[in-house]
Write a structure and sequence with these properties.
This protein is α/β, with parallel strands linked by helices and about 300 residues long. It is about 55% helix and about 15% strand. It has a single domain, classed as TIM Barrel (Alpha-Beta Barrel), CATH 3.20.20.220. The chain has 13 helices and eight strands. Strands 1-8-7-6-5-4-3-2 form an eight-stranded parallel sheet. It is globular and about 55 Å long. It starts with 5 loop residues before the first helix and ends with a helix. Bound molecules: dihydroflavine-adenine dinucleotide. InterPro entries: FAD-linked_oxidoreductase-like, PRODH_bac_arc, Proline_DH_dom, Proline_oxidase.
Length: about 300
C-alpha cells in the first residue's frame, strides 16, 4: 500500500488514456460522484438539498484551472455570479469559494480585481459571502494583498484561507485578525519546499492548533476546515475550556469525505459547512482526492486492472 504514493498516483492519473477511462467508465463514475456534485449547476443544487436538510450549510466551488485569456476569466465570473444568485433563489445561504487563477490572476492583478469586484457586488445584492481559496505559495502574498484591498470595500462579503504548513501564517493571521477578516484555516494542499513550509505532519498539526486557538480567541467567525479527528477534538476541547459557543465558529469538510463525521458534529450542535465542487473540469480535483487516501487508490487500481 505504501508504494501508492501521492506523486506516483498523480503521475499515473495525468496519462490521457487514464483520464479517458475515468470519464467513460460507468463503475468508476460512482467514485467520481462521491467527490464531485455533478457537471452542471442544476445538478449541484439538487445534490446540496439533502445536505441542507441534514442541518449543514454549503459553499459551492466551480471547478477549473488557471485561465489563459480574459474571455475565459469573464466566463468564470458569469458562472459564479449565476451560482450566487441561484443559491439565493433556491433558499440556500449564498456562499461560494473561488480561485483567483481562474479569475485571470496570471494575466495581471487588475483582471482578477475587476472579476472579484463583479462577483462581490453580486454577493452583496443577496447577502452572500465569497471565500478566496489559497493556492500555491508563489501566490500567497499577492492573494492576501488583493483580498485585503477588496475587503476594504466589501468587509462582510469576502474572506480568505490560511494554510498551517506555511511559516508565514502566524504573522498573516495577526495581520488579518487586525482587519476583522473572516478566515478559513486548513493544513495546506500543495507540495511546498522546506524554505517556506513545515514538512513534518506533526509540525503542520502543531501549527494548526496554535493558529486555531488564536482564531477562536480573537478571529471573526473562523472556519476550521479539516477532516482530522485529532484536530477536531482539539478545537472542541479548546472552545469548551474557553467558553466559546458553537455559534462563534464553524467546521468545514469536503463533499464526500468523512460524511458520518460531518453528521456527528451536527448531532453535537456544531456548525458544519460542506465544500461542494461541481463542473466539467472535475478530473484534477478528483485525482487529488484519490491520491489522499490509499484505500481510494486501491479501489481505482482494481477497476483499471479489471
Ligand atoms: P488529513 O489529510 O490528515 O486527513 C485526516 C483524515 O481525514 C484522514 O485520515 C482520513 O480519514 C480522512 N480523509 C482525508 N482525505 C480523505 C479522502 N480524500 N477520502 C477519504 N477520507 C479522507 N487547501 C489549500 O491549500 N487551500 C484551500 O483553499 C483549501 N480549502 C479547503 C477547504 C475545505 C473545506 C477543506 C476541508 C480543505 C481545504 N483545503 C485547502 C485542503 C487542505 O489543505 C488539506 O489538504 C485537506 O483538508 C486534507 O487535510 P486534513 O486536515 O483533512 O487532514
Amino acid at each position: 500500500m505504501q508504494r501508492f504514493t501521492r506523486p506516483a498516483i498523480l503521475t499515473v492519473a495525468s496519462i490521457p488514456t487514464v483520464e479517458r477511462f475515468f470519464r467513460q467508465n460507468a463503475t468508476t463514475r460512482g467514485l467520481v460522484e462521491r467527490f464531485v456534485a455533478g457537471e452542471t449547476l442544476d445538478t449541484a443544487l439538487e445534490r446540496v438539498r439533502p445536505i441542507a436538510a441534514e442541518g449543514m450549510t454549503v459553499t459551492l466551488d466551480l471547478l477549473g484551472e488557471n485561465v489563459a485569456t480574459e474571455a475565459e476569466a469573464q466566463a468564470a465570473v458569469a458562472a459564479y455570479v449565476e451560482t450566487i444568485r441561484r443559491m439565493a433563489a433556491a433558499g440556500l445561504e449564498p456562499n461560494i469559494s473561488v480561485k483567483l487563477t481562474m479569475l485571470g490572476f496570471d494575466l495581471g492583478e487588475a483582471v482578477a480585481e475587476t472579476a472579484m469586484g463583479e462577483i462581490l457586488g453580486a454577493a452583496r445584492d443577496v447577502g452572500g459571502f465569497v471565500r478566496v481559496d489559497m493556492e500555491g505559495s508563489t501566490y500567497t502574498a499577492r492573494t492576501l494583498d488583493l483580498v485585503e484591498k477588496m475587503h476594504g470595500d466589501f468587509p462582510d462579503e469576502v474572506g480568505t484561507v490560511i494554510q498551517s504548513y506555511l511559516y508565514r501564517s502566524a504573522q498573516d493571521v495577526e495581520r488579518l485578525i487586525g482587519r476583522r477578516m473572516r478566515l478559513r484555516l486548513v493544513k495546506g494542499a500543495y507540495a511546498e519546499p522546506a524554505s517556506v513550509a513545515y514538512q513534518k505532519p506533526a509540525e503542520v498539526d502543531a501549527s494548526y492548533v496554535r493558529l486555531m486557538e488564536r482564531l477562536l480567541d480573537a478571529g471573526r467567525y473562523p472556519a476550521l476546515a479539516t477532516h482530522d479527528p485529532a484536530l477536531i477534538r482539539a478545537a472542541e476541547g479548546y472552545a469548551t475550556r474557553m467558553g466559546i459557543g458553537s455559534e462563534r465558529f464553524e467546521f468545514q469538510m469536503l463533499y464526500g469525505v468523512r460524511r458520518e463525521a460531518q453528521r456527528e458534529l451536527v448531532r453535537r450542535d456544531r456548525r458544519v459547512r460542506v465544500y461542494v465542487p461541481y463542473g466539467t473540469e472535475w478530473y484534477p480535483y478528483f485525482t487529488r482526492r484519490i491520491a489522499e487516501r490509499p484505500a481510494n487508490a486501491l479501489f481505482v487500481l482494481r477497476q483499471l486492472a479489471g
